[in-house]
Amino acid sequence: MLFSNIAYLNSNFEIEQGFVGVENGYITYVGENDPMSVDPTSSTPPRCELTQPQPAQTAQPTQPAQKPSYDFGERYDGTNKLLLPGLYNAHTHAPMTLLRGYAENLSLHDWLNTRVFPFEEKITNEDAYFATQLALAEMLRFGTVSMTDMYFFNEARINAIKESGIKANLCSGIVCFDERTYEELPNKKIDDELIAQHHNTLDGRLKIELNIHGEYTSTPRVVEAVGRAAAQHGVQTHIHLSETKSEHEECKQRNGGKTPTQYFDALGFFEAPCTAAHCVHTEPSDWDILAQQNVSVVCCPASNMKLASGFAPAPQMLAAGVNVALGTDGVASNNSHNMLRELYLFALLYKGSTGDPTVITVPQALATATINGAHAQGRFDCGSIQTGNRADLVVLDTNQPWLQPTTNVLNNLVFSAQGTEVVLTMVDGAVLFKDGIWTTIDIERAIQQTQKATERIQAQL
């Protein structure tokens, strides 16, 4: 596909106008001129970003200029459109879509123990499959091209991911309160099989990670073993970290004053790249560890506010060099997988909570939702619009009342966009959502089956 005459967000978080070409799942052209109408005899070739510096060339006899050979196929008219790199939901629990609106106005402890855990005991594989489909449909609708998902029901989630065409980093949740070793837990066999059968499959769309739910739901021997296994397998890890004040302080009481970050670090868990969700109550000494150990922090503003957990110290972590990404968490604690809404909250809340209107710039906010999320997933050929990157792209219709006038497109994008202006979502060059149509998901069936499952479970409780 050739996106023509379209405004696009470049890798420096600036808006340019031009052409972006996609072939075989990759971006192969970015420039201000139409690559299909370039005069090969012209002395001013089109500006085109290159993925690698070109080696110096020795003088050669002048040869007739050759017009580059492209095969873009469909031409997409970019009039009144904005092209973005796809959004990354770096922490969620997709099957928990079943619980949307079910557990409200509760503390995290009560939310989990009185509502979530009893409900989850009734979920079947089929329930999880359709709920994941519905979650992915919602993500694609609002421009998300990849998620980092922590949950159970692995076969159901993998099937939904495979069929949808979306990208995903997936882990199987580990919770352990007794003295069994990792090798004695059923999770060890599950993890080994997931890595052997699914890691880096679907042309790299699917990656498997290892998981520890949190410090307070695991034991030191399991934490140490899972971290070691991740390093041996060459996969990443995914954890909850310092989500609540009580979690953070009780960890220090149990572990000789060590914060959860210091606890995981002391056990060698951060030897493999890690995604740490929430990090609301981390301390300055933690930020240095997170930066030095290549731990990506995922802020979940809506979920943390809804459960009254607080605000992750994102400005301070960014200043310390931490890779900060953005996630929705599950819809049981957020009610939405709309990453543009999450972006809006992230860009605003630190201004209000710190009293500093200059904190968190628009480019910083956009980075958390795009390239920082891609890097958190270990996807270094994703997250920005440049040649050689995967064609994970989103088109917004900017000809909407709430996005006009276009005094500043980036400011409008962060502070005015609602998600409904997304008209196309592309993953690896494949269009998965366009103009209200999902090309890979039977949306009506996903809605009906998820509603049916939720009603059945509620009737059993």
What this model shows, in words?
The chain is α/β, with parallel strands linked by helices. The chain is built from 15 helices and 18 strands. Helix 2 (125-141) packs parallel to helix 3, helix 2 packs across helix 15 (443-460) and helix 11 (339-354) packs across helix 12 (362-369).
Keywords:
about 450 residues; 5-stranded parallel sheet; about 35% helix
Helix content: 25-40%
N-to-C CA distance: 50 Å
Described by strand count, sense and barrel closure, the largest sheet is:
9 strands, mixed
Provide the residue-averaged pLDDT: 93
Strand composition percent: 15-25%
Q: Count helical runs.
A: 15
Q: Can you tell me the overall shape?
A: globular
**What structural category arises from helix and sheet content?**
alpha/beta
Radius of gyration: 23 Å
Number of strands: 18
Poorly predicted ranges? 40-61
Task: Please specify the SSE layout and strand pairing.
Blueprint: E1 2-9, E2 15-23, E3 26-31, E4 75-77, E5 81-85, E6 87-92, H1 108-120, H2 125-141, E7 144-151, H3 154-164, E8 167-172, H4 186-198, E9 206-208, E10 210-212, H5 220-233, E11 237-241, H6 245-254, H7 260-266, E12 274-278, H8 284-292, E13 295-299, H9 301-306, H10 314-319, E14 323-326, H11 339-354, H12 362-369, H13 371-376, E15 393-397, H14 409-415, E16 422-427, E17 430-434, E18 437-438, H15 443-460
Helix pairs in contact: 2-3, 2-15, 11-12
